[in-house]
Structure formats: structure tokens, C-alpha cells
Amino acid sequence: MEFLRGVAGVAGLLLMCGGVLEAQEPAPRPAESSAPTALASPTAVTLKRAIELALLNSKEIQVAKIQASVADHAAQITKAQFMPNLFAGSGAGYTNGMPETPGGRAPSVLNVTYTEQVLNEPLRGQAKEMQEQAKAQKIALEEARSGVITRTAMAYLELAKVRHSLELLRAEQESAEKILQVTEDRESQGFELPVEVTKAQLTKARVVERILRLEEREDELEVFLRYQLGMPENQAIEVTPEDLPGEAEQAGDDLIAAALTNNPGLRLAESDVRAKEFRLKGEKRGYFPTLELVSIYSLLTKYNNYSLYFNHFQPNNFNAGIDMRFPIFSAQLKANIGLAQVNLDAAKASLASKRTELTAEVRQKTRRVREMDAAKEVARLELQLAQQNVAVLQAQFAEGKLNLRDMERARLDENDKWMAYLDANFQRQQAQLDLLKAAGQLDKVWQ
After folding, report:
1. DSSP state of 236
2. Structural domain of 181
3. What per-residue confidence (pLDDT) applies to 401?
4. How far apart (Å, rounded) are the C-alpha atoms in residues 274 and 278?
5. What pLDDT, on the 0 to 100 scale, is given for residue 107?
6. Considering its fold, how many domains does the chain have in total?
7. Which 3 state secondary structure label does DSSP give 256?
8. Is residue 379 part of a domain?
9. Edge-to-edge strand order for the sheet containing 290-299?
10. Which segments of the chain have a pLDDT < 50?
């Protein structure tokens, strides 16, 4: 008995020690997540809001604004010569003999010079040319805005189409799996050939391939939109299928007239012609005299030997008048006129070609929109027919007159028609955007 009591005591002691050791063991650490950073909660963005954000955050537009500002300042450089210009300086130096400087003016401790061009037609022509080029940069800014609107709208509409297509394809994948399961069961029972199972497997594999391709395209479009809209990298975007505003529907003749007035490329060509005309007009007037207002104040000192070579020394000296020149013969002027004339002829030829190309382009894009309208209507009717066929087959399936495989095949066909309709609708929207861009109407549509 005492032996048993000793054994029981030792066992109790061991159990107590084991409990203490278990209490001292550290708790297991939670598994560290190796998944990538999750996207933030989706932000719903309408098409109009997306375009507004893109115009606000576009780097391309910011660069175009800077270029327009540079052109404005460059135009002011030439124009400044027709404004008052005042300079101060010094020509102090040691004189041994006749007082003079390399520039031909008398050495002076301090001198102040005033100049202002009054009549200089070649220079005035250059100034007007640069001012017109500055206006052209503002037209280029409008062209950059149109490009941003077009790319943003197309990406937004395509993303909506891709997401809708993915929903259809995932439902199509379920139907393909059901068809495969039924076919495998019938093949195991001897009612189907192995080739039918292979066909069902191929159908499912094609659906999976299309899903993967669209998921990759969805990611590309979402990344592009986040960059265009200035959103964080982990910000999810929620888009909704939308049609273009009603203002996008315009007659072809109206759009041709609008294009000849508002197309940025044509306006740039017209501005280039005006600039070259200003330059040629100024060069031709180079035979006119030039007139410049000049004024000079000089503070002279005696140590430059003025008293040795002049009868009277005066420290403060002031001269004011005009500098007029009459061109008698100038080979450079004739060459300048010839170059300006050639540049103007080239600009006019480019403008005429641009007008012809633009008219043909707008007509072609108008026809393209009409073709896409017809294709969309065909796709809509095919979808409607497929939906009606599914309704009929659904009734037959409920009555037991149709098997599950044929029912799911009908649903697959309906999904294919849905995706064809989405593609046709997106292609029509693309054609509309291209037409509006060519006509210079994008800004007016989203005002």
C-alpha cells in the first residue's frame, strides 16, 4: 500500500509539473499574411466625372500649358524691342592718347542708354509671327484636351464592357461545367462517344481562356484609369455602363461644317499660314526706312585726357535723337523675302491638303458610325432571338421535354449573343468618339 501511495504521489507531481510547463509555453503566433495589399473600397465614378478628373490631373495637359506659356514669353521678347528699354553701364578705363573705347564711344564712368524701335517692319513681322505661334500653342492645348477626353472615355466604356462580359463568361463557365458533367455521365453509361466529352472539355477550356484574357484586360484598363484620374494605386474603381450624351448624335453635314471650323489640326494649319503671312509682309516692307529713338547720358572724367584733345571739358553729357536708316541695296533682304514666300506657299499647300483630308475623314467616320449602328441593331436582334429561344426551351425543360445539356447549350448561345451585342455597342461608341474628335466637338459634348 505504501508503495502504491508513493507511485501515485510521483505521478501527481509529474502531472503538476507538466501543467506548469504548458502554462509557460508561449502562445502560437498568428500566421503572417503573404497576400498583396488589398484594394481600397471601390469608388463609383461616372463617365463625366472621370473625364473631369482626367482633365484636372493629365500630365499631357500640364506640359501643353507650359509650352503655351513658353510661347507667350518668347513672343514678348521680340515685341519688347518696340517698348522703352533703358540700360546703365560703365566704360571706365585707362587712356594713353586719344580717349576712345573699342565700341567707338568715349570712355565714361557711368552711362545710361535709352532705345525704342518705332519703325522696323521686318522686326514687326517677326513679332507678329511669334504672337501667332503663341496662339497656335493654345490650339495645341485644346488638341491635348481632346486626346485626353477620347482616351479616358474609351478606357471607361471598355472597362464597363469588359466587366459585364466577365459576368456573362462566369455564368457561361457554370453552364459549360454542367454540360461536361452530364456528357461524362452519359459517356460512362455508354450513351455518348468519348469525342463528345472532348468537345465539352474544349468548350469549357475556351471559356476559361476568355475569362483570363478579359481579366488581364480589366487590370490594364483599371491601372490606366487610376493613372489618368490621379487615384492611388490601391484604389478600386467602380464604373457603370453608359451611353454617350445625346449631343453626340449629330448629322454628318453639320459635323463636316463643325470640323472645318473647330478641328484643332486644321486650326493649327490656318494659324501657321497667318504666321507666315505676317513674316512675308514684314520682310517685303524691309525696303521702308527704319526709325529708332535713342538717348545717351555719359559721365566723363578728366583722367581720360579729354582736356588735351578738346577745347572744353564737360563731365555730364546728354544726347537724344533718332537713328534712321534707308535701305538702298540689301542682298540679305531679298533672300529673306524669298525664304518667307516659300514658307508661306508650303503652309498654304499644307492647309489645302488638310482641308481635303479632313472632309474625307469626317465623311468616312460618319459612314463608320452608320455601319456600327447597323451592326449594333443586328446584334440586338440576335440577342433578342436567343433570349426568346431560351424562354421556349426553359418551358420545355420544365415539362420534361428537354434535357439539361440542351438547356445549358442554349444559355451558352445567349451569353455569346450578349457579348457580341456588348462588343457592337462599344465599337459604335468608339466610332462616335473618333467622329466627335475629328469634328472638334468633344469639349461641347461634355460641357
Report:
1. E
2. 39-83+120-288+327-442
3. 83
4. 6
5. 83
6. 1
7. helix
8. yes
9. 85-89, 110-119, 290-299, 316-325
10. 1-36
